[in-house]
Amino acid sequence: MTDLDMTYVRVMESLDRLDRMLVHALKVDGRATFSAIGAALGVSDQTVARRYQRLRSAGVLRVVGMPGSQIPGQDEWFVRIRCTPDAAMPIADALARRDDTYWVQLASGGAEILCVTRPQNTERHDTLLLQKLPRTPRVTDVQAHQLLRSYDPDPLLFGVRLGAGAGEPASGGLDADAVDRLRPAPRDLPPTPLDDTDRAVIGVLNRDGRTGLAELARAAGTSESTVRRRLDVLRRSGSLRFDIDIEGPLTGTRAHVLLWLAVLPSTLTSTAESLVTHPEVNFAAIITGPSHILASVSCADGAALHEYLAGRIGSLTGVRRFETAPVQRMLKRHGLLDPA
């Protein structure tokens, strides 16, 4: 076991309620200042900074900035690749190392690779989906579904799972007042295309969403005031968003599945909106194809997953059928992979 592995284990074993409240605060706004988070948590900004650095350096937590889901001229695609089990890991690893993919996962006992891709142009889209993947040895099937509209749960719901399985009462996160104090400015501007400056800034934020303005300005070759102004516009337009990469044990979840729902057309929007009120749902999207809604679901264990599917999903009006694919391994979440 390496020194980093040992540090990770020690940090995971020593997590307390304050750590989980900090994680929840960063889920609400990954760019919130340490002083703002400290005020919401009732501790000093120095305590927040120290706790954050401990979690970040151990690999338990990372804040990630990424393009939004409704950028003009930049579509998102969910790709489902079936292949022989011996080929799954090398193919998934190659996909994870691309700069236009995220949520790269091995599922269904290693017989499937699931990922989302956001090609920057039509050429890259066609190269990946029409040339590279179909011609890859031992790939038996490739399905690509466009994400038409994505839905994110209210960050308040994230706190419901924190502390589960850790000997702490639920919720292990922030209360509603603290969440409201930390919420970023509302999205009140229309989606805006990204320019070269924006792409340079987001490229840095994709590795570390809390990178300071000075470093962002150097990366983009512009001034700090320009970067500050563009960040505000991009966030308020939904063209830039922040999230966190965390380990499953931190939230007490061990059963992770991708869920496909076929629903009546008249209930398409209402079903998606209902899904993201469930604490078990990480995100939901309306997609093209025979299944109309895709959702990422996390539960404490298999028994809890069964209860969720039979109860909440079974009671949704308009659901005609559903399919699940259990996730065995997550190779990539939101951000770029750290250099080896």
Give an account of the 3D structure.
- By secondary structure, the chain is α+β, with helices and mostly antiparallel strands.
- It contains 14 helices and 10 strands.
- It has an 8-stranded antiparallel barrel, surrounded by 4 helices. A two-stranded antiparallel sheet has the order 1-6.
- The two termini are 17 Å apart.
- The mean pLDDT is 88.
Structural class: alpha+beta
What is the mean predicted local confidence, pLDDT? 88
| Uncertain parts | none
Helix count? 14
The helix-strand sequence is HHHHEEHEEHEHHHHHEHEHEEHE
Give me the count of strands: 10
State the share of residues found in helices, binned by percent. 40-55%
**Describe the biggest sheet?**
8 strands, antiparallel, barrel
Strand content: 15-25%
Strand order of the largest sheet: 2-4-3-10-7-9-8-5
- Give the overall shape: globular
Distance between the termini: 17 Å
| Radius of gyration (Å) | 20 Å
Can you tag this structure with a few keywords?
25% strand, 340 residues, two-stranded antiparallel sheet, 14 helices, 10 strands, alpha+beta
Please outline what is shown here.
This protein has 340 residues and is α+β, with helices and mostly antiparallel strands. It has helices at residues 3-13, 17-28, 34-41, 45-57, 85-96, 122-135, 155-161, 176-182, 196-205, 213-220, 224-237, 248-251, 268-275, 302-313, and strands at residues 61-67, 77-83, 101-107, 112-117, 139-151, 240-246, 255-263, 281-287, 293-299, 319-332. α3 (34-41) crosses α4 and α3 (34-41) packs antiparallel against α8 (176-182).
